[in-house]
Amino acid sequence: MSLATLHITGPLATITLNRPDSRNALSPDLLASLHARIDELADRCTPKPERTDSGPHVCILTGAGRAFCAGMDLKAVLGDPDTARSLLLSLAEFTYKLRQLPCVTVAVVNGPAIGGGCGLVAVCDLALTYTDNKMGFPEVDMGVCPAVVAPWLVRKIGPGRARQVLLTGGLLSGLQAHALGIVTTCVPTPADLPAAAETLTTRLAAGSPHALRATKNLLNDLDGSTDWPLLEAAANLSANVLNCPESQAMLRSKLEPSARQ
Amino acid sequence: MTTPTPNPTTEVYAHLDAHTGYIVLNRPDKRNALTPAMLDLALAHLHTLLTPPPTGQPACRAIILCGQGAVFCAGFDMQLVHNDPATLPALLTGLSKLVRALRRAPLPVIIAAHGGAVAGGCALLGGGDIIVTDRDAKLGYPVLKLGISPAVTIPALRQALTDGQTRERVLDTDLITGQHAYDLGLAHVCCDIREDVLPAAQRIAKNLANKPPHALAATKQLLNHLEGTDADEPFDRALAASFSLAGSPDQRARVAALWN
């Protein structure tokens, strides 16, 4: 089965990260699958003469299994600077495509969303999670720089709060993420998520696709979401930090503690 | 300047009380639903209030925008929009002009948003420096359901909220309470009951009217410049985005469905 799946029912599309054994960590293969799915969805939303409807206009992003997304698969790129750089650029490009989708995007954060995984939450227009979930940006603790996610977090919660969150690192509860504005809805338990997501997406789907797309285009224009060069530069910055000896040593000690013995 | 006097026969009237100018939406039987004529009248009253008076007459130093009846403003008159498709572009243009003019007025604008400020009514809040509401008021933008884009409101709304909150408020058609609006920063003062909103606005206006007008004007001008709301470009782009859907078959069908 594909590492990312796309399911469309009428106005609602769902993209699911499907690497549950690795907590949906973003590997090169998973990102390649995500790109393929989102390209299919974007094509489905493009008006064509032979199409009688305008395609889905609400898109859920969620994870299979117990996690939403554990972030970049740093172990897969340890000691491989070229693959690390291309992985970061691939993530940056995916976040860009996700933001430009002519759909309201809703992250249904079914489990931990860490680092790049929490970045995907910030890119989405709306997000739901549960109180005790684990979310956040611990990049600085790992010796790396959250450059790709930073522009999205600033746009989501404002520069002041983004500064605090990204420099502090660590993890947040779902409740804390809600208080900060990283998620828009917080339900008590994971079991409450599906019903809350259905209520929200049903309401969103009742809106006019044309009006929604015009609104989203303007939002993206005004808040800098269309700035691809900024994201590309951020990905390269992130790669430069990740590939430096200090970061590599720190990552090795955290990801391969047995190697020290 | 002719000192405006209250004229309850008009759908928007203005008056000056000491140094506080009032622009009053006066269509309570329709929850102050806006027509193009009302927006034009409000703008004309604003210009009148901003015109320096003859020597010896009190000058307007603070403006309160408020509404008669149960709620501040329920938005555009959708019956008019349904009957005449040309009404929607006129409403969008009038709204954009009025919000810009209020935001750029060289004196503080306080909006008494009691009971409800919905759709175009919520967009009017973009013209206010200080928004007063009540805990149980209803605020928001349900207009995507009608095939109308609330884009016209975004340049001002994103100054009150983070971009993330702005995105949520304009894409999700649910209304929020006055308390929630206050928690977000969309409203600055939250009263317990709607009857307290206008008196609260009046106290704020009186306090501000006593401060040096030139200092307030300069500060407001600087704030607008820092935000970029002194430029027409973002407002023009937002208006164009909302305009692009006005009169479309989808929009007309959705509005018509209100009466089917």
Structure commentary:
The complex is a heterodimer of chains A (261) and B (260). Chain A has one domain: 2-enoyl-CoA Hydratase, Chain A, domain 1 (Alpha-Beta Complex), CATH 3.90.226.10. The longest helix of chain A has 20 residues, at 81-100. Chain A is an alpha/beta fold and 261 residues long. In chain A, the strands form 2 sheets. A 6-stranded mixed β-sheet of chain A has the order 1-2-3-4-6-9, with helices on both faces. Chain A starts with a strand and ends in a 6-residue tail after the last helix. Chain A is built from 11 helices and 9 strands. Chain B is an alpha/beta fold and 260 residues long. Chain B has a single domain (12-194, 213-259), classed as 2-enoyl-CoA Hydratase, Chain A, domain 1, CATH 3.90.226.10. Chain B has helices at 36-50, 78-83, 87-104, 120-124, 154-160, 163-171, 178-184, 197-209, 213-227, 233-243, 249-256, and strands spanning 12-17, 20-25, 62-67, 109-113, 116-118, 130-134, 138-140, 176-177, 189-191. Chain B has a 6-stranded mixed β-sheet with strand order 1-2-3-4-6-9, with helices on both faces. Chain B has a 3-stranded mixed β-sheet with strand order 5-7-8. Chain B is globular and about 55 Å long. The mean pLDDT of chain B is 94. Classes of the chains: A alpha/beta (261), B alpha/beta (260). The interface between A and B is medium-sized, with 29 and 35 residues.
Question: Strands, helices and their partners?
Answer:
The complex is a heterodimer of chains A (261) and B (260).
Chain A: E1 4-9, E2 12-17, H1 28-44, E3 58-63, H2 74-77, H3 81-100, E4 104-108, E5 113-114, H4 116-123, E6 126-130, E7 134-136, H5 150-157, H6 159-168, E8 172-173, H7 174-180, E9 185-187, H8 193-205, H9 209-222, H10 228-242, H11 245-255
Parallel strand pairs in A: 2-3, 3-4, 4-6, 5-7, 6-9
Antiparallel strand pairs in A: 1-2, 7-8
Helix pairs in contact in A: 1-3, 3-4, 3-10, 5-6
Chain B: E1 12-17, E2 20-25, H1 36-50, E3 62-67, H2 78-83, H3 87-104, E4 109-113, E5 116-118, H4 120-124, E6 130-134, E7 138-140, H5 154-160, H6 163-171, E8 176-177, H7 178-184, E9 189-191, H8 197-209, H9 213-227, H10 233-243, H11 249-256
Parallel strand pairs in B: 2-3, 3-4, 4-6, 5-7, 6-9
Antiparallel strand pairs in B: 1-2, 7-8
